[in-house]
Design goal:
Layout: H1 16-45, H2 54-77, H3 80-85
């Protein structure tokens, strides 16, 4: 992100990082709200039946793996914002 090309990135590449953080946080907030809503509905209806299959484990494992890879990438980039995030 050190090289600035005003024709390819007219507003600068530095705006991409905060934008990606905002989009990711909105996605995580919506996911958390849906999980809380479904959980509350199951508790109120007394229909709690957790099923943890290979799909659930794969989804959770991929989330952890993606976050670990992003943390490593952010640490290697070394800008002030990425060091704070990781």
């Amino acid at each position: 992100m050190k090289c600035h090309d005003p024709y390819e990135y007219p507003h600068g590449r530095s705006h991409l990082e905060p934008l990606s953080v905002i989009l990711t946080s909105v996605l995580m907030a919506v996911s958390a709200a849906l999980i809380i809503g479904h959980s509350a509905e199951d508790i109120l209806n007394d229909t709690i039946s957790p099923v943890v299959g290979w799909e659930t484990v794969a989804l959770m494992g991929s989330a952890v793996l993606i976050k670990a890879v992003l943390a490593i990438v952010y640490m290697r980039v070394g800008t002030v914002n990425t060091v704070k995030l990781s």
